Amino acid sequence: MTGKLHGKTAIVTGSSSGIGKAVALRFAAEGAAVCVVANHNADGGRATAAEIERAGGRAAFVQADVSLAADCKRIADEARAALGPVDVLVNNAGITRSRGLQEMDEAFWHHVLDTNLTSAFLLAREVVGDMLARGSGSVMNVSSVHAAATHGGFGAYAASKAGLCGLTRALALEFGSRGVRFNCVLPGTIDITLYPRPGRPEPDRDTWRPRESDIQVMKRCGSPEEVAAAICFLASDEASYVNGAAWAVDGGLLGILKDRP
């Protein structure tokens, strides 16, 4: 199987459904061996890995909680053991939670920050050695438009996603001269029903289209595959001079919001 990522080993967290699953499938189609990571939806993660293998690709599945340092080490160890040294990491696992400041306790705050932000630090720390040893590698952090324009009640979530952008910039400066690139993407409103969670009917992929939306600039939501396409490019050697970038995949939403008085 050849493609943009032929011969590379990738870890994709949160790849049991939604954007993560689309990334895992796209990476496999481009020739990567993919370590699929999921926690609560383990069956969905196994299904993603099985789908890759049915299509002739190489995959492994690891059930783990990315907010825990020990689990992040185990993810890296099991990925290496099954598929080889890690070339690409996609920190996609995350949770969306909203709660007002006065209703937010420390446990809520830490749960969101540990899952969305600390996990990216932990996993990058585990795999960057593989990349430095070969003088090449690519890490993508999946942030959100909430990093730049958010709503009331999303303080913890927006902070975690803005933090991912800051972490990306700092690590891009730290490792860029040694061949390891760090970038992030900021998805907007994405219709994830193409890759649903358990209990929801699987749509026909040949006829599925993102739902229409009058409040979006392009009058529709985005698709997981459109985000996956951007991440795949950033992961590939075609993006060899892209480092420290924050790419909005939002149909132009942020540009419109910033223009508003």
Description:
There is one protein chain. With 261 residues, the chain is of the alpha/beta class. It has a single domain, classed as NAD(P)-binding Rossmann-like Domain (Rossmann fold, 3-Layer(aba) Sandwich). 42% of the residues lie in helices and 15% in strands. The chain has seven helices and seven strands, in the order βαβαβαβαβαβαβα. Strands 3-2-1-4-5-6-7 form a seven-stranded parallel beta sheet, sandwiched between helices. Helix 4 (106-134) links the parallel strand 4 (88-91) and strand 5. 45% of the residues are buried.
User: Based on helices, strands and strand pairing, what is the structural class?
Assistant: alpha/beta
CATH superfamily: NAD(P)-binding Rossmann-like Domain
Order of helices and strands: EHEHEHEHEHEHEH
Name the overall outline.
globular
Q: What radius of gyration results from the CA coordinates?
A: 17 Å
Task: Summarize the main sheet.
Answer: 7 strands, parallel
CATH names the topology as: Rossmann fold
**What multimeric state do the chains show?**
single chain
How many strands in all?
7
- Give the strand content: 5-15%
